[in-house]
Design brief:
four-stranded antiparallel sheet
Amino acid sequence: MFEYLKSYLLYGNQFCGVEHTTKNDDSIIYSTVLKKSKKAVDLSEVLTSSSIEELASKLPKKQHVSLVINNEHVLTKTIKSEQADDFKLVNKAFPNIDVSEFYYEILKQDTVFFISICRQSYVDNLIKLHTENGLHVLSFSLGNAILANVIKYIDDAVIFTSNSAITHENGFMTSIDLKETVQKEQYQINGLTVTNSTILSFSGALNLVLNNYLSIINYKKKEATLFNTYKQSRFFSQFLKIGLISILGVLLVNFFFFNFYFKKVETLSETSQINQTAKKKIIKLKETVNKLQKTTDDMLKSSSSKSSFYINTIVNTLPESILLSQINYQPLLKKIKKDKTVSLQRNTIIVSGDSSNSPLYSEWISTLENIDWIDHIEVLDYSDLKTTTSHFSIKINMTHDK
């Protein structure tokens, strides 16, 4: 519960992924908004925009986003290498480039590396434009790599994005092929329907929720700065709201307490008089209860030794084939009611249980009938529960109180 509240205060319940790509040589922005509850994530909204200004007008003010840059400014190459050093991998894929001027992202898929680069100046300017329009970029990804975040949920051997066809096998990407035109497709991801045009923005939004996408990047400090800037802005905004709400809450609670105690004082004098009358009634009731308690105690004391004697005698006659479930000494004739005498079925014991041997049961009844304080026995119930077990209930009538 604490973690959910902490996440809600920091992010709210809406997570947005934004993909910048091109279609028919025109820039286009696909956006996916996910809504998070305690135990589920739902697809809230899918948007298509032609500019950042248009996108910002459709999203809540100060919405945080995960940016996916997947246009002509991003170059992606696929290589196989035993080398694990990211700098050497980038230089192998893109020889002679000045790495200090580029952001790069390396996605390792089994033995294959997908390496994407984009000029820092372009990315920084794109983030700045989002910020100027009231959108907080928390993270960004290059090319189609972030699809790895959801690829395990899709069975299709070839997955289409907004501009590429991606093949995968055993949960790993094997190739990324850019396409000038991409056929329209729909995919089911844990019950959510996602189109190929928005699958990358969906992956970006989902990564904000799950934070489970792993890749090698050289812009961790950049993302840390973006996150800290957002956190400070969010904290100030939430602190201001919570502060105002708290002040109003305190004033409101103070008003209710004042009103409550003011009325309470008015009724104290009336309550005091009522309490005096009630006190007298309680004293009388207590005297009545004490008398009834004494009568009950006397009755229990007089009958406890008798009941123990009778029950011990009955239990000592039991064969092993009989299992008792109830012994009711002097059962009630009627339900106990207020101000009514308790009526007991005197000189009577009700015995119930199960028997697994009918002859021994009959012998036991005969044994009981020969006891001197038992007058006679009535069979109230005898029914078969199973082929080997019978349920019985008998009434023992005593000659007199022992």
